[in-house]
Amino acid sequence: MLHTEIASLMNEKGKMYEWASKVEYKKTLNQEDKEISQVIDAWAKNIGEKGSDPNLELSNFIVKVVQPEVYEVPDELLDAMFDRGSIGEFDDYSLNEVAKNTLVAYDTAKGGNVEKSYIDVKAVAPTWKHKQVETEISYADLRRNGFKTVSNLTVFAKEALQNKMFFDIFSQVDALIAGGEQLINAGGSSLTTTAMDQLSLYLIDRGENPFTISLSKYAQQIARMNGHSQYMSEEMKNQFNRYGLVDFYNGTRIGHISGAKRTGDDMQLLPDKRVFGIAGKIGTLDMRGQLRVYETFDNQREQVSLKITGFEFGTAINKIDKIAKIVLT
Questions:
Q1: C-alpha distances in angstroms, 116 versus 99, 103, 249, 305?
Q2: DSSP characters over 178-223
Q3: What string of DSSP letters covers 43-60?
Q4: For the chain, what are the domain ranges?
Q5: What is the average pLDDT value for the chain, to the nearest integer?
Q6: What is the pTM of this model?
Q7: Which residues, in sequence order, are bridge partners of residue 95?
Q8: CA torsion 74→284→131→266, rounded to 10°?
Q9: What's the confidence (pLDDT) of residue 12?
Q10: Which domain of life is it from (predicted)?
């Protein structure tokens, strides 16, 4: 079995993933991190030497460490966009679309009758996505790199699943905005104050604490727009000088995602040539079921195959009027 100390640490929320992230991204390890590394190293190398894991400790480790990170850890951006929840593996639901006020008031004499008008309420079914990762690790890699192999697998599995979810959600949001006043054409390859003013006004009229989200290069353009710096506080100017970013534009928060951050198949997490605007919660995002990991040892090839599955999420967007976007060419 896993060392008692490590088994105990796995029950501390976020402890082992924090350790894995420090190892993977070469951050400074404290004394406890170094002790964890030693125990994980001996454990991983033992699996590589024996070519077996009869108690399925490797798959259990991935489930216990990765699942909380992709199912339970708060995400500031997605939490601002959706009401979050989780349901059972075989459960489903629908969400009523927010009704528009289409009741019409007519002039009439007292006691008279007018044409009836109606409220149309539709049910929105979630769009479900199921993601799966399959990979192989050689026994030699386990023996050679030990704890580094485990940290690498843990962090990359989490990022692969989470990044794909983020990519799918914003691809869905992008497809929902097909025309009307929600679609703002910038008229070129660079953002303009006219387009940004139009977007911010649309958002402010429809929700509290609105924000935009785009690739970092467009957030930088917003910060550099002519005349905007005169409205920035000293703290905001300092942030701009240090990071090239600002927190607000005309009352709208400016969010950004690094263009260097990509999915495993080399897709940026946000569509390019877009600035999305969100005016509060737009629907629900639910996780369904639980993460499962299957491991199969092949002593002929000296490989262990891992199948990470069960990562399923559903989005039901019923407040489409709270979304807008700027499109560049």
A1: 17, 8, 44, 64
A2: -SGGGEEE-SSSS--HHHHHHHHHHHHTT-SS-EEEEEHHHHHHHH
A3: HHHHHHHHT--TT-HHHH
A4: 1-93+129-328
A5: 89
A6: 0.84
A7: 124
A8: -70
A9: 84
A10: Bacteria
Tokens 């679309």 belong to: 97
**Cα 286 to Cα 314: distance, rounded to the nearest angstrom:** 5
Q: Could you tell me which of 207, 152, 117, 110 has the C-alpha nearest to residue 26?
A: 152
Most confident of 88-92, 105-109, 270-274: 270-274
Tokens 């190293």 appear where? 41
The one-letter amino acid at 319:
K
Segment 27-78, tens digit of pLDDT: 999 999 999 999 999 999 999 999 999 989 999 999 999 999 999 887 888 9
The separation between CA 154 and the C-alpha centre of its own chain, rounded to angstroms, equals: 17
Do the strands 252-257 and 211-215 form a parallel or antiparallel pair, or are they unpaired?
A: parallel
> How many residues are there in the chain?
329
List the beta bridge partners of residue 324.
277
244 exposure class (CB count in 10 Å sphere: 0-12, 13-18, 19+): middle
